[in-house]
Design a protein that fits this description.
The chain has about 120 residues and is an alpha+beta fold. The protein is built from four helices and three strands, in the order H-H-E-E-E-H-H. The two termini are about 20 Å apart.
Length: about 120
């Protein structure tokens, strides 16, 4: 999946971990979190439709957190600090931009394996 975007996006990424859900705040759902330097955590979710949850975690949560990683890595190089709202906006735009590309690459790979 990460190869579909390219090494520029995951440069410096050290780990993507699946973790058990932590108690953050009552009624507050956390799907993923980015920690500096280069760590992305994806949190387990209550069991629902497995395929749609898997796709949501891959195409929405992981890409969103990867967007945070890209912005943090870029900000470190230029020494500019971003506001939280700017971080969120960038991460959402990153996920929206790369989701169709990653989906297409994974579908092509699945079709190739089926034949």
């Amino acid at each position: 999946m990460l190869e579909a975007i390219g090494p520029w996006a995951w440069y410096g990424l050290r780990a993507v971990e699946l973790r058990q859900t932590e108690d953050f705040r009552p009624g507050f759902v956390v799907y993923g979190r980015t920690r500096v330097p280069g760590e992305i955590f994806l949190y387990e979710q209550p069991l629902s439709e497995a395929a749609s949850l898997r796709d949501f975690m891959r195409f929405d949560v992981l890409l969103h957190e990867l967007g945070h990683h890209v912005l943090q890595h870029r900000s470190r190089k230029v020494g500019r600090v971003q506001r939280r709202s700017d971080h969120e906006r960038f991460a959402e735009a990153f996920a929206d931009r790369w989701k169709p590309t990653v989906q297409a690459v994974l579908e092509t790979a699945a079709d190739d394996q089926a034949t």
